[in-house]
Amino acid sequence: METLKKKSVELRDPSYYNNRELSWLAFNERVLQEALDKRNPLLERFKFLAIFSSNLDEFFMVRVAGLQDQVKVGFTKPENKAGMTPKQQLNEIAMKTHQLVDLQYETLQKTLLPKLQKEHVEFVKMADLSADQLDIMERHFEDHIFPVLTPMAIDAYRPFPMLLNKSINLAVVLEDVEDQAEEGQKIAIVQVPSVLDRFVRLESKKGSYKLILLEDVISFFIRKLFHGFKVISTSVFRITRNADMTIHEEGARDLLKEIEEELRKRKWGAAVRLEIQQPGFDPAILEYLTNELEVHKKDVYAIEGFLDLTVFFSFYKKMAPVWEHLVFEGKVSQLPAGMETGKQIFQKVSEQDVFLHHPYESFEPVVQFISEAADDPDVLAIKQTLYRVSGDSPVIKALKRAAENGKQVTVLVELKARFDEENNVQWAKELEKAGCHVIYGMTHLKTHSKITLVVRKKDDKIERFVHLGTGNYNDQTAKIYTDMSLFTSKRQFGIDATNFFNYLSGYTEKPEFHYLSVAPFTIRTDIIDLIDTEIRFQKKHGNGRIIAKMNSLTDKLIIMKLYEASNAGVKVDLIVRGICCLRPGIPGVSENIQVRSIVGSLLEHSRVYYFNHNGKGRTFLSSADMMTRNLNNRIEILFPIVDETIKQQVKNILELGLADNVKARQQDADGVYHYVPRKDDEPVIDSQMELFRRAYQVAEDEE
């Protein structure tokens, strides 16, 4: 590369990369910006506060916990992109997270709660209640709350309790009324019951709500739990624990039992964060808790307001039907073009490939595909991978029914799907009881691919139908995640799918595929080859173009190859919702690369990779982000779109994402994101809303 030689650019320079964890925090900041965005309806803004908190919980339970473990064992080696040691990362994470949490609560207290009050919903304190209201609340406490509470004393015989992860607790300092000496003070812990509604509603006139926090009610009447003692102080706190699982796959005779055992341990991992409610937190209790839990002071978050804003998920669910004007306008998923209701999906797919873009187009054809296969007497076998499914999954029901109907059903259930392990263990047991052949994947690899194969006999001939996608077989998340999927009956796709499942379930060498590229074997090398080819076309024709859409980009080899493409003159447009370790716009390194992130009412989840190839246009969908973990440690599938009409459809979707000037943010050369500027004469383009409009238009045209 002449340009690189002339400028002597060292593409491994840490200044050319964003740290993975700080990039994730930048993504969560974009989520928080949606709570700040006045264009969003009020209840939606509360929900974004909940999403921000939920994201942060998981970040601490996994990513921060992992870094803390590295520090504890004395690991000081810098990570291989931005060159930061674990300790440096933890310091930067703490500084940034404190800033974001302060902004989150400032938004709640100064903006959203006052707006909610105008809608006749008010959060009140026990101290604000009248005598009559206090009497009503006391009866409610005694009848509905007191019986559920369990005070846990701490003394020589009763050590500090193992508090549940993400639970809210009260630390109560007590004094024996018979012994006023300092050493007579006692400490007890009371867990706020998660089985009770967090918001206690006061009687109020119709159409208005006065709400009190459950922990405030308990604190006010806490003396009733400790007769004979004087309550000196009551402090509200919440802990977050290390929830990463250590699974010893090599020595596990039964992976399912091994995971069940690890799930039991997860609840009691080391504390990684302590949140305390201010004002009024007892300083002596804070010192006691930090010592007892072994939490560093930078991981203590003093919150001026109530803890755990994930409660606004349930608040949203309860209030949304009451105040429809405070939520996003409901959007209905449409059937894709040519997919008539009642028409057998096998007939349609045997005629042509069918492309779906969820949730603009309905997930129902995917459910219908598996359901029809379960009941079709000509279907001989169904094979499917499952990573995350819904709680009352129609997909699981169809698979169980298929087995009961005598079909050969093979299901690969990924037991190691983070935070879905418990659900998947249960599904695996249910499927086995129904007669399905359940497998758990391959040692040390998560099976993250999304694929279904249906084998059918017609006129004494075997035909194969394949469904491939970028998202999970989850009918609920398909309503709020943007994903793409493909039905095909093309013979070579069917052969590839058969070989893929046989490789996962049996003893056989890695097969050669016609269309599929599979991680951890070939996806990275295939993507790099595609970029190299685009560089060659750029040098020959000057029309190099790459568009890639994904959740996260962290793989250093691919980033370096994209830098190389940029230096060769290839125009690279990246739509990366979350983590992006690549920095665009650096002269001599990434000046031809643009990175944008779209955070809106739907969670952008589809993975699409487009290469111009001198106008021939090669387009791929994948279950994989360009992350090192996906390419090294997961079974993933990358597959091409071969139908020209569908290929153009996908290209149009990508171009629309690049035109978004409402929910899109653009990363600058310093790694900072800014809303994409819009000129006064430019049309307003919200890509998600425009895709719904287009889906509606197609449906109308078909009527």
From TrEMBL:
Q: Which Pfam families match?
A: PP_kinase, PP_kinase_C, PP_kinase_C_1, PP_kinase_N
Under the heading Gene3D superfamilies, the entry gives: Endonuclease Chain A, Polyphosphate kinase middle domain, Polyphosphate kinase N-terminal domain
Q: Which reaction does it catalyse?
A: [phosphate](n) + ATP = [phosphate](n+1) + ADP
Q: How is it modified after translation?
A: An intermediate of this reaction is the autophosphorylated ppk in which a phosphate is covalently linked to a histidine residue through a N-P bond.
Q: Which residues bind ATP?
A: 55, 481, 577, 605
Domain Polyphosphate kinase middle residues, every copy: 133-315
Source organism, top-level taxon:
Bacteria
Query: Domain Polyphosphate kinase C-terminal spans what residues?
Result: 344-509, 516-687
| Matches recorded under InterPro entries | PP_kinase, PP_kinase_C_1, PP_kinase_middle, PP_kinase_middle_dom_sf, PPK_C_dom2, PPK_N_dom, PPK_N_dom_sf
**Alphabetized CDD domains for the sequence:** PLDc_PaPPK1_C1_like, PLDc_PaPPK1_C2_like
Polyphosphate kinase N-terminal domain ranges (all copies): 17-123
Which residues carry out catalysis?
Answer: 448
This protein's record includes keyword Iron-sulfur: no
- Record EC number: 2.7.4.1
- One of the record's GO molecular function terms: polyphosphate kinase activity
Query: For binding Mg(2+), which residues are annotated in this chain's numbering?
Result: 388, 418
Q: Which SUPFAM superfamilies match?
A: Phospholipase D/nuclease, PHP14-like, PPK N-terminal domain-like
Q: Which NCBIfam families does this one have?
A: poly_P_kin, PRK05443.1-1, PRK05443.1-2, PRK05443.2-1, PRK05443.2-2
Question: Any idea what this protein is called?
Answer: Polyphosphate kinase
Annotated source species:
Planococcus wigleyi
Gene this chain is encoded by: ppk
